[in-house]
Every structure is written in C-alpha cells, then in structure tokens.
C-alpha cells in the first residue's frame, strides 16, 4: 500500500460530472480497460474488441449484454485471469502485471470476486469458517487464530448465524451459499467486488434479499461493484453506471438512469423492451 | 371433458418425505394453466408425474388422469402410448433434452417416423417443416447440425419442435425460457403463444417468473413446499394476491421491476 491515497480522493471528488471516455490519461480509476481487445488464437473474430471503461470509487459499474457478448471475458480481464491481446488493463493507474508480486498482493486485497453458481464456487470438503478465512490466510494477513473474529464478523455482516463457520456448504440453501461467497469476498475489506451474475441462480424472493445485502455492503463498506448481469432490474437496483456489450464491443455506456431510461442504441432498447413485465 | 385431471397427487421419496402434498388441478382442452413456485416447491415433479417420468425411488399416489388414461401406476407400455401424443414436455435446459451425439434432424425424425409412419423424402420434408414451424432459420443446416453446434435459443426451438412433433393435446413447458437471454426469451414466448393458439393446444406452463407465466397463461396455481397455496386468474393473483406467500412473491417481483422504471435526468 505505497500509493498516495489523495489520488483516490481526487477521482472520487467528481462523481456527478459525466465521465469522459477513458483516454490516454485516465483520472486514476480503481480499474480501467484502455482500448482492450482479446482474440483467441485461431478464432475468426475477437471476443472483446476495443473496450475502454473505468471503475471509479463509489460508482458501481454494470456490464450487461446477452450470452456470448463478452461480459464474463471482461471480468476475467479485469481480474487479471486473462491477458488482453492488445490494449491495457490498469489497476490504480498502473498496468496490471501478474508477474509483479507486490502489485498482485495489493490487487488481491483490493479486488475480490463472487461467481454465479453458489454450488460450484465453494469447496464442499471445507467448513465455511475455513472457506471464508481463505483470503486472509492466502494474503498472509492472518493466522488461523487471528482470522477467526474477522470471519465471524464477515458472516454476521452477510446475515448468517455465528455457528455457520462450523458447518459445511451442503448444509446451506442457494441464497445462504451466495452469502457465504460474499462473506469470503468481503472478509479482507476490498474496495472492489467483481460479481458475475451473483443473483441469477436464486429465486426471486432470495434474489431481492441478496440485492439488499449488496446494496448494504456498498453503503456501509464503501464497496464498489463491478457486476455482470443479464438482469436489467438487478443492474438498475445496484449500479450507478452501465456499459452495454454487444458481440465484444461496448455499444453504449453511461449513468444507469440514462442508459436504461433513455437508451441511445437500438440494441439497448431491444434488451429493455424484451424484459417481461407484470400485468399492471 | 377435462384433458388433465390431477386429484390429491402426493409424491414421496424412497425414505417417505412428502415432496408434493395432495395437489389437485385440472386443465381443459385448449386451456392454459400456469404453475408458479420457487425451487423445491414441487412444480417440476408434478409435471414429471403427468408423464410418468418420476425419478427412480419416488412414488406417486392419488390420481393423474391424462386424456382418459390413469398415469399413476400405469405400465410402461401404456405410458408410451400417452407420451408425445397426449402430452409432450419441453424442459428448462435444451442441452440435456437433446441427445448430444445425434444430429438435430435425426432426433426429430424419430418421433415423426414412429407416430406418423413417414419414410424417406416424406420424412425429410416433415423434419424441415417441423423446424420451419418453430421459426428456425436455415432448417436444412440446423437439421444437419449436432446440438452443440447451434445456439441456446435455437436448441430450445429444436426441443419445442421435438415436443410438437407428435401433435400433443397438452404441451408441458417446464421453465422453457429460464436458460435463455431476455430477447431470445421474448421471441420464444411469442412463438409458444402463437403455436399453441394455432393448434388449440392446452398448456401447462411452469415457471418461477410471474411475469413470464402471466404472458402465456390465463389461470395459475401457486405452489409452496409441495402444496397449492393459491389459485385463480393469473392477473388477479398478480394484482391482488391473497396468501402471505403469494404476496411476498409478487412483492419481490414488483420491487425488482420497479427498479427498471428509471427516468433519465436528461
């Protein structure tokens, strides 16, 4: 944590003003893609094409689009799991370099993630306490003993009973498992939470509760979300900004109210019009 | 005469747990009934019981009468006469409904050959027609493709074509659009709506999504923990839910939906 914090504040100071498209000198967003493209070897078309976007503190970003649009690939790029074929991925202003161990340690502490399927994302053979403590242990922040109170706190924050730590994932419902995944991702107090369809696998009543939990974490922990979702109502509930992806390109991005309320691109309009609505 | 008459259907696991509890419902010819519920409510098991497809170890008691045939404790031979002809089903995940090792056209040819006795060029033409009626582009290419070579939306259309191949009196659709993107879902719902109207087919439409059910059906049954907790006109249920559970369900759906009603500052 060598970076001067005043830089973060400088970016946070201008939330109301529309963000200029990320150009050569971005105003140190937490994460940023600059003209990023990704093409797999031997494939005809790039999966992600010339995408520029920025994640600013306190301005949660939604990536929406249909299957195959490249949403999850963008998340993988932002997580440093995939390297772009051209363009840059920046973390805190610096180009993300998986070989820079110091930077990666800072990165892992700052950026955590939650996946879609709460059944496959938790190790079935480990107790919940061990699962939630994992980031603290692997980042070398805590020993088993010093991690315990932090784990208890994280579990309480997501609304799980204290004895959850002693139990196994299979003893929990889908919604509770997603809470466990969120507890694991937030136990080290990251600034950014990348979430890939975090509520898509949940029933509607559970979905509302997990959306509420994420909103609470945003406000109370100052967490900034980067969320992939095809569910526009979830996006509208949680994210200040929205980028719409079609076939690997960002066709529209801006304030969520603007993008969903007054879409400029026909593809965005089609997405919004397709959402089935309840009878009035 | 009712087409489907379920009375006091109870489904138990091998160790005696009750998963569906004295459920009763009826579907008349040409009628559309929605089955609404969250995971574990027993809605999918109910649809499987209608075709005698319950998983190993599960037992059904009570009465399920489909077009005059008693399904509960029917023999496999009796069931084979019913499946496809009286009722056919479209499942949530088309990738598991289709055989991954067989070209789409061949899978579709099988029921057409057996039920309608078609052979050769006639059969080939019927396959193309079946793919055309579900509005699949390039039916020739789709017929030659393996399921993994076409998109999810196209697979679900192929699965629908398969279900319609024997011209069933009742189409059972179990979350047929849950795995699809919203715009593909909208097209699929339109398609089901049109095809069912053209054929005057009855529909049992299962979904957790109230808005989707309301799009297709007239009446609905709300299920929770294996029981029917509320039933009636689907619009009426959405507008004035009576039971606590239905209120919570409608409330959650409305809350998420209201987030969409954002007005631009512009």
Automatic annotation (TrEMBL), chain B:
Family the UniProt entry places it in: Belongs to the ABC transporter superfamily.
InterPro entries associated with the record: AAA+_ATPase (IPR003593), ABC_Ni/Peptide_Import (IPR050388), ABC_transporter-like_ATP-bd (IPR003439), ABC_transporter-like_CS (IPR017871), P-loop_NTPase (IPR027417)
Keywords annotated in UniProt: ATP-binding, Cell membrane, Membrane, Nucleotide-binding, Transport
PROSITE patterns: ABC_TRANSPORTER_1 (PS00211), ABC_TRANSPORTER_2 (PS50893)
SMART domains referenced in this protein's UniProt entry, alphabetically: AAA (SM00382)
Membrane-topology descriptor: Peripheral membrane protein
Identification of the protein by name: ABC transporter ATP-binding protein
